[in-house]
Amino acid sequence: MSLLDIRNLTVKFGGLTAIEDFSMNVKEGEIHSLIGPNGAGKTTVFNVITGVVKPVAGRILFDGTDITKEETHKIVKFGISRTFQSVVVFKYMTVLENLYLGYHSRLNISMLNEIIPNKKSSEQIWNMYRSALEIADFLDLKTRLLSYAGMIPFAAQKMVEIGRALMSKPKLLLLDEPAAGLTEVETEKLKKIIRLIRDKLKITILLVEHDMPIVMSISDKITVLDFGRKISEGAPEQVRKDPKVIKAYLGESESA
Ligand SMILES: Nc1ncnc2c1ncn2[C@@H]1O[C@H](COP(=O)(O)OP(=O)(O)OP(=O)(O)O)[C@@H](O)[C@H]1O
Fold first, then answer.
1. Cα separation of 165 and 17, whole Å?
2. Which regions of the chain are under pLDDT 70?
3. How far apart are CA 63 and CA 202, in angstroms?
4. Confidence (pLDDT) at 168
5. Which residues does a 6 A CB cutoff place in the pocket of ligand 1?
6. Ligand 1 nearest atom to the CA of residue 40, by list position
7. Which among 46, 48, 146, 201 is least surrounded, fewest beta carbons within 10 Å?
8. Can you say whether the dihedral through the CA atoms of 86, 92, 97, 102 is positive or negative?
9. Could you tell me how far CA 107 lies from the centroid of its own chain?
10. Matching CATH topology for 1-79+171-256 and 86-169?
11. Which CATH architecture has domain 86-169?
12. Which of 44, 82, 229, 230 should be mutated for ligand 1, with most atoms under 8 A from CB?
């Protein structure tokens, strides 16, 4: 079943057409990668899915609901969360507090009960704490919960960002270049975690990534963008051999 259905999307920034008539389907339970050379439009697709950028044409259906015109906070409630290309942690907050931030869409506490807790609000805070512990355990962050997020190693900060995205209990997780800046060993660990997120937490994954070995080894399906248009789609071995994909990437390295 298709969890995310992007139909005929077009996005313009002034005179620049960043995405043109782009369609793709992400099936429930899959790790689906969206790749393409620099500036192809991958992050823009994420920004449209999460309501940050509005398209001039096209629709985004999530779990059968049209979310094209929804605001970002509503989209999180529908079950989509994301990480960002440059790691975004609140450096002067602890790892635990950073994780808590991802839970806000699940909290339903009045301002009064934030100051004077009642049974319902205390229960919710307790559940938030339990979720944070479970996620910290899952991401190997348990010993860092009380450290300032800005003081822990870069790879652990990336885990905090993933953890914060998991705290909203999404059905779909959008990962924007999670391997950027990681060493080979850290990338291997990340790969395992992405698989576990899908297999154990049953969360569907849409991955934007430049690291081809990771993309080729963990993706069920790959969609390739170039200059805002879809140029290829299919299983990794199929996409890897596609002359259009080879040409798009060669063009990039020639101009670099
Ligand atoms: N807010 C914006 N205003 C104007 N142009 C933008 C904006 N966001 C993106 N663009 C342009 O849209 C195009 C697609 O950008 P986008 O960041 O989506 O590409 P990308 O595939 O994610 O690139 P990279 O792999 O380098 O991160 C680029 O030409 C970019 O300069």
1. 29
2. 251-256
3. 15
4. 94
5. 13, 16, 18, 36, 38-44, 85
6. 21
7. 146
8. negative
9. 21
10. yes
11. 3-Layer(aba) Sandwich (3.40)
12. 44
